Amino acid sequence: MKSIKKVEKEIIEAFEKLLNVEAKYAxxxxxxxxxxxxxxxxxxxxxxxxxxxxxxxxxxxxxxxRFNLSxxxxxxxxxxxxxxLVQLVRGRTAEDITKITLDFIDHLKIWKLASERxxxxxxxxxxxxxxxxxxxxxxxxxxxxxxxxx
Length: 150
Description:
Elements: H1 4-16, H2 21-33, E1 56-63, E2 66-73, H3 76-89, H4 94-97, H5 119-137
Antiparallel strand pairs: 1-2
Helix pairs in contact: 1-3, 2-3
């Protein structure tokens, strides 16, 4: 499996090949559009990322100690950034996930604010780290993030 830094480098290189901001956003939007559809049942308050102006849902799913992230948003930009996180999370352990940062976003040259100063990005990362911590601390974990109450 590729390291987190290697995946980040590949993402940065893909964006560097694009000639202008419009092309970068078009690519980001395409990544968001290519995300598998998140089941409506998982779009509940427990999986809603608090602190993001847009609606964004993250759902970590574990199989044999390795995680995958499902995500959806009502914002094309946020959904595209979530798609980048999906790439970073894929196949990682909970411990690996807690080490993910969004510093690489600054190198994509699509964001006007530094990633550490953008509340929405910080909220995304905090939510992801919190879910990974909670799941790894639950000894009777059954392969799901926080349960949705319907």
